[in-house]
Amino acid sequence: MHTAIFSVYTLVGLTAQLLFTSRMLVQWVLSERARSVVNPSLFWWLSLFASLLMSFYGYLRQDLAILLGQFLSYYTYVVNLKLKGKLRRLPLILTLALIVAPVALLVSEMWDTQAFAAIFLNDAHIPYALLALGFAGQLLFTLRFVVQTYISWRLKESVLPAAFWWLSLTACLAVLAYGCLRLDVVLILGQAAGLVTYVRNLMLLRKNS
What we know:
By secondary structure, this protein is mainly alpha-helical.
């Protein structure tokens, strides 16, 4: 199977990964200053906008693993911004637009179910075994935020527990392998950058435990 490493869509994906990397750098720098793992609001805003862009990249790339993975993660970012009290500072129309944007994108793509299946569930485009690997990685990335959101909701504050970072590390390795097999430079660069911050945060947590 031949897949171009660079395409006209690469810039969209790289911009999304730059935002994802920026959120980790912000969190990392602030954590290093505090000598403990911190959870800034900017982390979640960058996550939100990066996820929107990455969803669009998944659509352009015709990659269901990326598309659904971002769709599921997006709303955990919304919940964390709500827990931090950031959404109520926005105009209602803007808040509603942020909430419905991924749904509108997904519905528009799935409107013609036959065309959707022909494009996104095409074994000749992405072999099912490879797609399963991508799904597994994206599911773990989503699961980390489900765990994080559940713990945060129980504590009534947004936190980043150790389980979040362990799931991040495992998901990162899975998606990195998927990106290498897909020759997807966006995924490769993005996960390589994230790998460092996940390991460093685990080191900080261990040091402060």
